[in-house]
Amino acid sequence: MKSFVALALLYCLCSLVPESDAQTQSKKKQPPPYTDTDGYQVLSSIIEARTDKSKAGSVAIFHQTVSGDALGEIRAECSSRFATEFQSALEDLDKKAKTKLLLQQQFSIHKEYKFAETMVGVQTGIYSVSAVGFDENKTRAIVLVQYLVHPPGGVILGGDKTLYLLRRTQTGWQQAADVPNCGRIY
């Protein structure tokens, strides 16, 4: 009986000990979740279209959204080409890109997908996406999608980075055919 009381007392005392700095810092470094349902619809429509003809069995997606640094260069090159109807969506994208977010299991694509915690050495190709920028009515959207190609354990061999502009239609999100996508192949 004494050993039971001693264990219970030890357990109670341990639960009162504050967390170490390392424990609290790791929790603080965890990005907030990306929870925008409309954003996942946009992202899913793009990734679905890009992987539709691919023979790969599954799709790898980097677990965190792209930050403003990755968006900066391509935005500077492309933003002057966008119609004024997309300007408020572009401003929203800029705001959202200031914070990295943690993607959730909310994609609606036909292929199996998995999240990758690192960009290199895991898959032969991996998608990396930004949060989706919307206009006030959520009828226009802009998103950055990157695809990096590299052999497992190797360096990045190439890929592309594209800003997609989309409009909401009665059948879902469609790329704006009259406004060309802007991006870079490397």
Q: In whole angstroms, how far apart are the ends? A: 70 Å
Mean pLDDT: 82
Tell how many strands the DSSP assignment holds: 8
Low-confidence stretches: 1-26
State which percent range the strand residues make up: 25-35%
Instruction: Note the overall shape.
Output: globular
Largest sheet: 6 strands, antiparallel
Give the helix/strand class. Answer: alpha+beta
Helix content: 25-40%
Structural notes for this entry:
The chain is of the alpha+beta class. It has helices at 2-16, 21-29, 37-51, 68-78, 87-96; strands spanning 58-62, 112-116, 125-129, 133-134, 140-149, 158-169, 172-175, 182-185. The strands form two sheets. Strands 3, 4, 5, 6, 7 and 8 form a six-stranded antiparallel β-sheet that branches. Strand 4 and strand 5 form a beta hairpin.
Core attributes:
single chain; 186 residues; alpha+beta; 6-stranded antiparallel sheet; two-stranded parallel ribbon; 8 strands; 32% helix; disordered N terminus
Quick recap of the structure?
The chain has 186 residues and is of the alpha+beta class. The protein contains 5 helices and 8 strands. The strands form 2 sheets. Strands 3, 4, 5, 6, 7 and 8 form a 6-stranded antiparallel β-sheet that branches.
